[in-house]
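## retry 2 of 3
previous attempt timed out at serialization; input unchanged, resubmitting
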Amino acid sequence: MDTISLQDIQTLARQESAKLHHYFIGVEHLFIALTQLSGGLTVAAMEHLGLSPRFVRYSIRETIGRYEDRHYWPGFPETPRAVEVLALARRYAGLHNPSERELLLAILDEGDSVVSRVLHEVGADVELLRLTAANWTSPLRPQLREIPLYGDVVLTEGQARVLQLMFRDYAQVQIVGELTGGHSGALVLLARPVRVDGHKDAPVVVKLDHRYAILYERRRYDLYVKSTLPTTTARLVDSPVVPDNMTLGGLKYTFVGRLDDTEPMSLREFALKHDPQELGDMIRALFESFGAGWWLQRKPYRFGVWREYEHVLPPALVLEALHTKSLSTSSRILRPLEGWSRSNQVMPGEVVAASGFTVQKTNTADDVLHLAAGAQAEAINRSGKIEIRGMRVGEQGFYRGEQIDQVVGRVIMTRDDLLLRQVQALEPDFDVLASEIPSGHETIGDLPNPLNEITRLLDWQVNGTLSTIHGDLHLGNILVGPRGDAWLIDFAWTREGHTLFDWAMLEASLLVEVVAHLAPSGWEGAWGTLARINAINQGDIDVLRERHHVARALSTLMVIRDAVETCLFVPGRWGEYFVALALIALRLVGWKSESIDARRLAFLVSALSIAEAQSPTYLSSDAPWTDTTTDLDQTEIRLDD
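## retry succeeded, writing output
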């Protein structure tokens, strides 16, 4: 069997080390090199056991991080552990020159490197991997057969190929349908695999998305979710499928528990088909199932609002790339976590340099690069977002998590411009630049205009709590399982964060995706719904007894508010929650998949929530709201350093 020489592997390891600005050779660089050998033994053995070489490679890179681009020594010296592993590989080779097989076995046998830790984290059976590699005699990279896919969902060639790889051990796959309600652009399917003997396995949920989004989500699941899930819930199974020659990847969620003939559906679909009381019961069950491991693990947490919520807003800046390194003395240099993204001081037309930002997403089709502060899961690492157009993304080969030394560009839009466009698209019947929105209902006074409050709101200080949160808890990411349980999917943004984030997201989602569709159309209908929400805010639950579809749907809101009340840092001080709701509702104004009336309601909910947060009724006497930024918020230390 042909193998690759140790010299070739070391060359790849040096290239990997240089890409990460490490400039030394460690065991991790050697192993990453092994996973990059197309047609090699390492890739074949891992794929044979259902492990994704790309996912393992991604996880190792995320663990070891990227250094500053500085040389502290000549060449690429080997670490003591790498020297030990290479010596072991030579001993295994005996009289022959060491090759891929000997190096792989040596890395697995050493057992105490970053590689071993990551393999255990992703659920790999290291002993079985070693046994497979040691005894591999088959031709490498056998041609996989095509698995028949049946169903009415139209798939691209790439999507079909990823599905076939995900279910390569089955005779066929029935695509039951598409699960709607998501807003990330991913394709979420309900699939039922069929074995060779004709037996139909339980349905699974399949998510197809850009490969880096898939890798990121699986990594978040391993770090934050896997050990905290209740016994009966949806779980990610198998290694993600991310073929090296494709931009797509796939994840598979399976259901644990008794399986009936009923198929899972999103909570959004459930809400449109069932009574509001049943919807409330589902949300209550969700809190009871996940609360102990997630939202009730509360630690005191004082934070600047921007740290947890700036990332839900549009990018702070949109730049047109200039493809130059030169910068005039008057041009600004923007760095992560500095106050420029909340200052309104950078204006269209300026030439700026973005230095030290991290790639969050690439859009090859539109040639757009999305940058933010850092690579790790905490919300602060997605603050200071910058969108750069004309970066020749397809040619440059940027990847998620890569730190960009410096990019020079001309500002073409700011966050204020983007938000203004979103509100103008609502066809407002008021002056969008005014400081207040004139009242549209007799029970509500004039409201603060969110467009004029964002900067000040982001610099407020909040006394709250920190816990594990889902990070994107809208109705489309909650499934009603086979026996009526509430299950979660899509853990791409799961992290430790402000406890109330999830519940503000769920309330905003309920209002926009369900309640708004039951209200009369136009601004008048949105104001009428807002009046009922305002009554609930004031403690008037009689409004829920009205014989109106909106009033009945809003009864579910009380279940969410019960969960919020349990999680408030100071009992009865709801300002903490209304700050979160104001910013998340403003995020939903940009949900283009929703109707204009739904987005109008989101804008008014944001305005009402700002008014509530500013109300003296909700301000804590021992921790007053302030727009003064603490020294901690001015630091440039990044959580992923």
